[in-house]
Amino acid sequence: MDEHANKDTLKVILIGDSEVGKSTLINRFCLGRYSDLYLPTIGIEKNSISALQDGRRCMLELWTSSGNERYKVIYSHFYKDARGIIIVYDITNRTSFVNLKRWIRDVQLYAGADSTVFLIGNKSDLENQRVVAYEEGKEFADSFGYHFLEVSARSSVNLEMPFLTLTRITNCNQRHSMSF
């Protein structure tokens, strides 16, 4: 029997350039693990975690793909059924911030109109290496009507916030388990 059958399921995808920490955020949130070792995502990865929202059990399915352009052909399928989208950039990497326009274009092309979008500045623990100001990220997110937050996978600062907020906003109201 499918372990997700009696739970509401919410598909959330994390997108952004390579090395911004998408998989690290997922591993820290789902498994409580952190590593400084960079292991690039090949293709697509998925992790699941159960969360309690308003007395209901919700299964969060967290998906990510490589930030590499060569995987772009799978994006239309990757976005299918995603109710939450988290676009991640690295606050210590200006290029990852500049490239947000490309990721937002993909969201506009492939995501459903009912998707809730978060813009996340990762690596907030590296304040002394910051090249993207908090205000710059916030203003950018606001210009698209997206939620904004800075997080740190290393120190877990604000780590749960985007996932739990997405669960609350969407009421985790997808009743079926999604597949790719």
Automatic annotation (TrEMBL):
<dbReference type="GO" id="GO:0003924">
    <property type="term" value="F:GTPase activity"/>
</dbReference>
<dbReference type="InterPro" id="IPR050227">
    <property type="entry name" value="Rab"/>
</dbReference>
<dbReference type="InterPro" id="IPR001806">
    <property type="entry name" value="Small_GTPase"/>
</dbReference>
<dbReference type="InterPro" id="IPR005225">
    <property type="entry name" value="Small_GTP-bd"/>
</dbReference>
<dbReference type="InterPro" id="IPR027417">
    <property type="entry name" value="P-loop_NTPase"/>
</dbReference>
<keyword id="KW-0342">GTP-binding</keyword>
<dbReference type="Pfam" id="PF00071">
    <property type="entry name" value="Ras"/>
</dbReference>
<dbReference type="GO" id="GO:0005525">
    <property type="term" value="F:GTP binding"/>
</dbReference>
<keyword id="KW-0547">Nucleotide-binding</keyword>
<protein>
    <submittedName>
        <fullName>Uncharacterized protein</fullName>
    </submittedName>
</protein>
